[in-house]
Amino acid sequence: MPDYTPRLEHKFSFGLWTVSNRGRDPFGDVVRPALAPNDAVAMLGDVGAWGVNLHDNDLVPIDATPSERDRIVREFQRACTAHGIVVPMATVSLFYDPIFKDGAFTANDARVRAYALQKTMRAMDLGAELGAKIFVLWGGREGTETDACRRPDEAVKRLREAVDYLCEYSIDRAYGFRFALEAKPNEPRGDIYMATTGAYLGFIPTLAHPEMVGVNPEVAHETMAGLNFLHAVAQAWEAGKLFHIDLNDQMPGRYDQDFRFGAANPRAAFFLVKFLEDAGYDGPRHFDAHAYRTEDYEGVKDFARGCMRSYLILKERARQWNADKEIQALVKEIIGAGADAPAIGKYSAQGRDTLLARRFDRGAIAARGLGYERLDQLTMEVLMGAR
């Protein structure tokens, strides 16, 4: 019987904002009492998680004095040590406080842009003190409801200036951060400037320190726009930019649901887990999700355990798929089609002439069935435990 017990080497992490989510939504107030950060850490230790991630104000109130801040951080560090929890990633809240109603790094008011940089640098100080090496930037309000307010190319320039500045700050302080940029198409703004992971992959090469900057794709953020999340992850991986990943689940075309991982579309979750495991991704597997509003904190524990267990079940299903002789024979047949075709590879005069001289029997090639229906059915049988 496979062992689905989470272990430290799985690098499962949760945000303070996930397990401490109180169930408030736009139509209803909180359903769970406040959970202090140190108690959240204890919960994560109890369910077998490896790490905890945080926004600056998840831990330290925005108006805390320096002495209050230091006391809170010391107590949090003690709690992490006591429960065997690490802090792999930190981030900053540039969306909650009213000052950010028009964005942060892209806001029209220069005072807001300056404050956003100041707040982010202090959040980086906090993350470094806690041992984080990844710093996520989600531009939750970097967007607009009306394009009359600013030219979108000006917003991109402001965003570039901010990220370049933060890279220099990390270098200056010797923090060693890798920045992971997180995309989302909309919500809470009508439109967010960097709507997709692909948009950020196009933005990163324009930075002063592109080697320091990657992406943090989130299942829900790509799926809510009807996009294929696996394809975004694969593009980021192929580009060497998959610095972090947010795992949850989502129905296409809905608001940001942040369901338990695998709860809405286990088929898509299977292909995602299979890709991460086959590719050798060794970064954190971060669950940016929320328990249902129906739950008390025992239900939140069930939610957290469920995220990790579903990942491990799908990892085992991926192992079975890779070991299935019938599936692998079919894959070999599919991949090996056209083995006699001229090699493409690097352009050369000889290769050019060989390719131009080759005659292709289009009708015969097009008439061949590819076997994808059979392959997909076998995949579903593995996923459903029928093989």
Please explain how this structure is put together:
This protein has 387 residues and is an alpha/beta fold. The chain folds into two domains: 8-323, Divalent-metal-dependent TIM barrel enzymes (TIM Barrel), CATH 3.20.20.150; 325-383. Helix content is 47%, strand content 9%. It has 15 helices and ten strands. The protein has helices at residues 16-19, 37-47, 56-59, 66-83, 110-130, 152-173, 197-203, 219-223, 229-238, 266-279, 297-323, 325-335, 349-357, 362-367, 372-383, and strands spanning 12-15, 51-55, 89-91, 134-138, 143-144, 178-182, 191-192, 213-215, 246-247, 285-287. Strand 9 (246-247), helix 10 (266-279) and strand 10 (285-287) form a beta-alpha-beta unit. The protein is globular. The mean pLDDT is 97.
